[in-house]
Design a protein that fits this description.
2 domains; about 200 residues; single chain; mainly alpha; about 45% helix; 11 helices; Serine Threonine Protein Phosphatase 5, Tetratricopeptide repeat
């Protein structure tokens, strides 16, 4: 039986919907390429991530020679797919493998951190930061994770990003960066540069 990765091959189907036991059976003779793309362009790992099959993600990561960074047809690596689906447990599994390139982006240059900030997942975002995600990384449009958090009004994510980067933030102005305040003419509590209106004096 041909178990190489293909659009409807047993290996690809097991990766998407099967169990670790079936995966072991298909890989026992060492002939199948666990990193090879299927007919749809996805690897076994990206298929398992896309279908939110956590048990299979865990099993595939344990296979000798697995490449946890191989991207699918849309250009996103598994860590980006896990963040896009807001699957915290799967994100932790991938990071625990110790071989994930956390700053790899998708076809638009969006890293896992960009997606976490844009979608409002502060717990995932903080985990990525703790694992060394690049706060200054930009998308192909030149946007940082903080830019995306501001645009989408993701206050918790923005606060975490600003704290990690050393930019002060207060509860009443979570979307204003230090550079914005500086350009406006000063820090918190400074006036805007307009002359104050005088009150009418009484005689």
């Amino acid at each position: 039986m041909d178990v190489t990765v293909g659009k409807s091959s047993p290996l690809q189907s097991v990766a998407s919907y099967g169990s670790p036991e079936f995966l072991a059976l298909l890989l026992h003779d060492g002939k199948a390429d666990i990193n090879g793309p299927g007919g749809d362009g996805n690897t076994c790992l990206t298929s398992a991530v896309m279908n939110k099959n956590a048990a299979m993600v865990d099993a595939i990561l344990a296979v000798e020679g697995i490449n946890p960074n191989a991207a699918g047809p849309s250009g996103w690596p598994p860590i980006v797919g896990a963040v896009k689906s807001a699957n915290f447990a799967m994100v932790e599994m991938l990071l625990a493998s110790g071989a994930v390139e956390i700053n790899n982006g998708d076809g638009a240059g969006w890293t896992a951190l960009h997606h976490a900030a844009n979608n409002g997942n502060p717990d995932i975002l903080k985990t990525l930061i703790a694992k060394g995600a690049d706060l200054a990384a930009t998308t192909k449009d030149g946007l940082t994770a903080a830019d995306l958090a501001k645009r989408q009004k993701q206050k918790a994510c923005l606060a975490a990003l600003q704290e990690a980067s050393g930019v002060p933030v207060t509860a009443d102005e979570p979307a204003e960066s230090a550079s914005t305040r500086s350009a406006a003419g000063g820090g918190p509590g400074r006036h805007s540069g307009r002359p104050a209106k005088r009150g009418r004096t009484t005689k």
